[in-house]
Amino acid sequence: xxxxxxxxSICGSTYSSQEVQYTCPRDGANxxxxxxxxxxxxxxxxxxxxxxxxxxxxxFAPLLPVPDPGYARTPLHQVGMTPVYQPETLREQLGLQQxxxxxxxxxxxxxxxxxxxxxxxxxxxxxxxxxIIAASTGNAGAAMACMAASVGMRAIILAPRTAPPxxxxxxxxxxxxxxxxxxxxxxxxxxxxxxxxxxGWYNRNTGYNPFTAEGKKTAAFEIWEQVLRKLDPSAPPxxxxxxxxxxxIISGVYKGFQDLRSLGWIERxxxxxxxxxEGSAAIANAFLANKDTVEPVHAVTIADSINVDLPRDGFxxxxxxxxxxxxxxxxxxxxxxxxxxxxxxxxxxxxxxxxAAFAGLVKALETCQQDPGAPVLVLCTGSGLKDINAxxxxxxxxxxxxxxxxxxxxVIYG
Amino acid sequence: xxxxxxxxSICGSTYSSQEVQYTCPRDGANxxxxxxxxxxxxxxxxxxxxxxxxxxxxxFAPLLPVPDPGYARTPLHQVGMTPVYQPETLREQLGLQQxxxxxxxxxxxxxxxxxxxxxxxxxxxxxxxxxIIAASTGNAGAAMACMAASVGMRAIILAPRTAPPxxxxxxxxxxxxxxxxxxxxxxxxxxxxxxxxxxGWYNRNTGYNPFTAEGKKTAAFEIWEQVLRKLDPSAPPxxxxxxxxxxxIISGVYKGFQDLRSLGWIERxxxxxxxxxEGSAAIANAFLANKDTVEPVHAVTIADSINVDLPRDGFxxxxxxxxxxxxxxxxxxxxxxxxxxxxxxxxxxxxxxxxAAFAGLVKALETCQQDPGAPVLVLCTGSGLKDINAxxxxxxxxxxxxxxxxxxxxVIYG
Lengths: 414, 414
Known about the structure:
The structure is a homodimer of 414-residue chains. Chain A has 414 residues and is of the alpha/beta class.
């Protein structure tokens, strides 16, 4: 599948893929990629996708702006096609008709971000880049390091000096060259862009590189294949809860459903609900105030994957929710922490950002913003192993006993 | 598939599945489960397995002693069919003809142990158990908690008081009732057995419950499907590197290949190499001294998943290696740590026990114990996210720079 053209998400200017590499030259806004679905030669066949034996995002290669990069026996080819669970007890507790949890911890680097990095690395291979750079302390950096390692591409990651050593270690293990910048995330972000301009390194930054959303849209394709196309078309629309930090995930998922609609494979878009932590709610604030511009906040939340002062993809994140008749919901850190063992009890161990999406569903039901008769899917974006300190805070401590049957009997049966 | 009979792994006594629940009544040794492959009615069909659309261990249900438990949309049905990678650069560096890495971190609780726990929980469902108990601080406990949560079964886990809070938290998040015992692992193990006898709780302990090895044998079935049956039968045998702690993984993998041979689906067994940490080498010591009895050690290694004083399945672990013309290899903690970034550089993030298996391959090549012309597979048993402190120790610290292009240029280009 080729790229037909690019458009600016704000001013609407149209560009060829040769004219623009990252953001709009006019206003600096994020670029939407438009695939060439039209010509008879490249028109994707729904049947051949559904019958494909490929169990990764690359089954959807005909819907992507980059070709399948090969490297079939590497982690790059093991991204996506994550499971959807239907936890019956949880569905009953919530009083829902239908509930799915999509478990993105099952990706190679244990988060949703592998989708974006896989497609960006595929694009880097296609355009013969030698070095890929990003500013990230978290899941995006780990995903980029993992995907670059899969194909032997050199990766450079800039992180603030204050990045937790545990997160930095994962990047280093994947062989990325990690450089700690004596400054904050925004300074690392700006330096990475300057470095791309100066040294010609390919830049993967979220909310800057147009191909991250193209990777993230694969989650929409899977939700369509696994859930949406099996639903009763006369039922209320599928509602999807998505954790929102910089806004790129919800923008990517929206783009995927748009693609499916422009192909005529779906008639209506699912309803997208963006969930933000109360302490990091820049996009939700704009939505609830009915504004188009997102004002930065001083973000503080336990959910570090969605802890964002200045969302880099806020405009499109607002559009995704408005155009699907969704809404934004804010949840407290306490509600986020409570959701970790709630999901754990059905066998799903999530990081706080993923728990936030579920907490958003709970809150939507409590505040009558969710029809319990509508089918619901929660996108759980990362593994609880990514933030074990939050897990420790989410559960009471275990009791200690003497190693005797009497002591055990007392603690179990009282 | 039903159970034909049980045999004691040491004295060879034969029992019906009604006569014995855990170990041999005569000598307390581990029990081998023999499936009923013989009757025309239950004879498994290779073709129907290979054509199955089921992408989990349950595709091999005809080869298991328990039926597929259902719960299709839960983590219980997402265990296994983990990817095998073929990292080209690593293969070249090692001078091997063929190299596969099987990545068990892609299981629901991010380790190989989900295989055992899935089959044990399926057996618990089949025999209508209400409570399942185990002594574990690590991957086995997490796997049992995750699988029990999948089906809403009550799980009780006994752990030594000294268990790291990060490991305990994962069990608690999965809703297991965790009880810390003021004693060591052996005391927790013994108390769990006494509790099973007193309260009737079903016991999952490794090296005690005969169904853990039946779960672990599914890795052999996958290696057969993914690798073995595609190899040139006239080539040297496939050699498999397996980390060994209590000995139950290598025993289970061996059992799987035995099953395949008794079905006539393979002619010769792969060569199994057990890799132990130098500081926890009870089974390797017995093998290298050509003894049948395994003497306990005071185990100290960074690879905590294979840090075992008294291996509970040592006899069968010796048998697995002897009968496949394999060997045992000991690796130092330093060699284990070095292997973490070596695997990371091809996109695979492993915990120390898994790195040990790879370190064993490196050492085998150095010491001429591995024919470079033979096909080799390394079983990487768990995710690096399980032990982030070891990851931190395995890589040098990242440099810190001022947020300027000049500083970045200097650190990259010197």
